Amino acid sequence: MGSGLTLNGVLRILGRARLPIYCICPSDDFVLHSRWYREPPLARVSDLKPFELEKFLRCLSWEQAVLMPCSDDWVRATASLPPALARRFPASMPNREVVLSMLDKWKFAQLLTRTGTPHPQTLLLRSQADLRDLPQSYFENQIFKPESSVEFAAKHGVKGYLVHSRNQALEIASKLDFPIMLQEYIPGPPTESYFVDGFVDRHGQVCARFARQRIRMYPPYLGNSSLTISIPLEQIRDAAASLDLLLAQVNYRGIFSAEFKHDSRDGLFKLLEVNARPWWYIEFAAHCGVDVCSMAYADALRESVTSVEHYQIGRSCTFLPYDIHACRALHRENGLHFWSWIHSWTGGEDALFSWHDLGPSTAFTRDAGRIALRRALHWTKVA
Questions:
Q1: CA-CA 20 to 30 A from 133: which of 7, 110, 201, 315?
Q2: What is the CATH number of domain 121-184?
Q3: What is the pTM of this model?
């Protein structure tokens, strides 16, 4: 249940494992063109909303099925199912309280404070008055971030707003809904961002860890990785250790993807967020030897999960449509040469394109072309 790259990666992993899979996603999503896509055997399930999940599951005649939510809103809906329905449709994931603490960014900041996990300084502002009362020093490299990313992104189309001064903050805040978080922005290039992905089984055993480094991102500053590379876990040992401690303290279960940024000012790896679900580059992790989807499937059915101790290091993965924009920005800023960009992903893999499943990338390219054409025609008319 979900959309885009994340759902597409999960679908491919489980499809190759020859599991019977059914997907719920928007009717215009490129995932519908995957060779493994199948719609559940009920009428009018296209564009099913997360709040309709309980009603939908009650209508299914299946004796049992494993649920795998691939976005925050579906994670929340799955965690909120009544116990009897959750037993019939199990999912390997944290309990509802932990899920909500991961999805609500202010609750998450409070959790990190209680557990002593290094993280950016974060304030919750409840009104414009709270903002105006802050000293000027609070407005140097700060981010306006929402408590809930899903609703904020749907309304504003961005993850947050980077601010550098009081006047800029007041101007942006006038367009935002309160409460809103003001979080310290940790300086440094995209290469200072690291991820620890993995899986914890129902016994609390961390069965897999997969470390990777961000090389490029788009949009700049508050975007997503457009090029990432697998690295040794030892390279970010302190980050992995602090994450293990946090997961143990909250009795975590299921798939996780944690984002850190290395702060050169004090040498600490500071935790930015933990996604309690699959992530964009989950298929890349599987190709490197860490298949957390199959682990989650087995764990949901209360079967044993085999731990993974090693994975391939130095492999790279790009999401080309985003990386093109990222490289254009880098070319303007520091003169990144075209051939350097080509060389940076030669030998790597693409997060969307697959010779064994051409439908999604073909549909994505077609839709992107249509959007570009409509924009070009619009600007031609305006001119």
A1: 110
A2: 3.30.1490
A3: 0.92
